[in-house]
Design goal:
Largest sheet: 7 strands, parallel
Shape: globular
Order of helices and strands: HEHEHEHEHEHEHHHE
Number of strands: 7
CATH topology: Rossmann fold
CATH class: Alpha Beta
Oligomer: single chain
Number of domains: 1
Length: about 250
Amino acid sequence: MKMNIQQLFDLSGRTALVTGSSRGIGKAIAVILAAAGAKIFLHASKSGEKLDAAAKEINAAGGEAIAIAANLSSGGEIDTLIQQIGQLDILVLNASTQFYGTIESFNADDFQFQYDVNVRSTFKLIKAFLPGMQERNWGRLLSIGSVNEFKPAPRLAVYSSTKAAQTNLILNCARQYSQFGITANNLAPGVIMTDRNGKALEDGQFREILLESIPAKRFGRPEDCAAMALLLCSNAGAYITGANIPVTGGMDL
């Protein structure tokens, strides 16, 4: 049987929301999904130059992108975002918040804020868009987790637990909804060269310690994650569901 590569990865006619997509991994995923033909809703916690620039970049390349802002710690703003989008085929849950600190240094508000952004918003968005995916018998749920699910960093204990909870929710969706043509997977990045990680990686000693923990002996690029996301969000990945895939250069081993 002849395989049509373009058709396998073609997302023409599909609509995708990529949360946290004004920069870094989220932006790279949005760009590659748009290049495959999907209409993209770009998202950031608030309006700004980076969000507008990401939309302009996609539109200038011949894609279709709409910028939308919503604070994912606010249930009301999530509801507004859902109403603005309407029908959705692909939900990429990339946005997250990350506070450094040990267990004893965290206060209740910081703990709750991370769970609101990283877990509660995931639940609300999935619950909102699942019915339409079921009706159309096609959908893609993809969460962006972290290598900290496998090896929690001492000062990221709360963040690590939110990512593990998010992944568990996604894997549960895979068990329940794959029969409706909906795949649900988690992509767990390692150390990726983004502006979020840039400041920490300026410390030469810390940088060398991290490199020693990565069998590939290099840090990842946002594009490394975007390529896997395209596979999981396209028809090429239609039989991949319930997977927790590390994109870590082997750091999770």
